[in-house]
Amino acid sequence: MGRRPTALIDMDQPAPPIPDLARLAVHTMTHQPWSLAQCIAAYQPLGVSALSVWRNTIDPNLGGVTPNDAGAMLRDAGFTVPALVRGGFFPAFEEPDRQQALDDNRRAIDEAATINAEMVVLVVGAVPDMPLDEARMHVADGIADLLDHAEARNIKLAIEPLHPMYAADRSCINRMAEAREICQQLDHPLVGIALDVYHLWWDPDLEFEIRRAGQMGTLFAYHICDWRPLTRDLLNDRGLMGDGCIDLKSIRAAVEATGFTGHHEVEIFSDEYWAMDQAQYAPKIIAAYLQYA
Ligand code: ZN
Which residues have CB less than 5 Å away from ligand 1 (the ion)? Predict the structure, then answer.
């Protein structure tokens, strides 16, 4: 017997683990400077195959492609689409404004069906000077009015509670409990909740509400990023996972304990990261996801 040949791969050593990116999804708005085509082209070779699509990328008036073209691009590239983002903004003092919002939401549902998205995320809205409990009634009524259309297209509607700093003009639903109450009121399999850690990490009832949502079958989506303690902007200074103070692993554990099998959707609005070379940012997001989320 001759000497054992030098192997390029030492079979005695375990192979390095293959990063599990099967459940990672990225919101197109995380790469605001990029088109949908650029997002697809960048993430495909990195092993990510899910994108949640913001409507600006599929609106030709805003420089996007048509929903039909977007659907074909995503399908051809083998991407799944957890969500179209976003619909909502139901509360309004005047009936024509309310109807206009409903029409826009029906268009969002149509677009979601065209790009084969599972759900439309609802940022429910709020109107300064309208009491929050009254606004929440507008939200429940508005979602109820969309149910026929959502059923016809088989699109889920995910209520996304927003941090209370947005209660004046973006969302009268600020905790999972308020979203749950609307889910209970409407009691419809297409109505559920999008849990975004940026908005809900501080809620002392979060774990309890996650469990409830699991039991009710209303936990539709899980959005991740981080909260910078010295936040510089209330909208566009979200942190990348690991940048801030959110206990992402504990929240994920609570989410997974419900049997949630959906995606971990990275949604980061950040002037700082949007200013970066996006081609360098994408692998940084994957590394942060694997290490901290
Ligand atoms: Zn979100």
Answer: 196, 223, 267
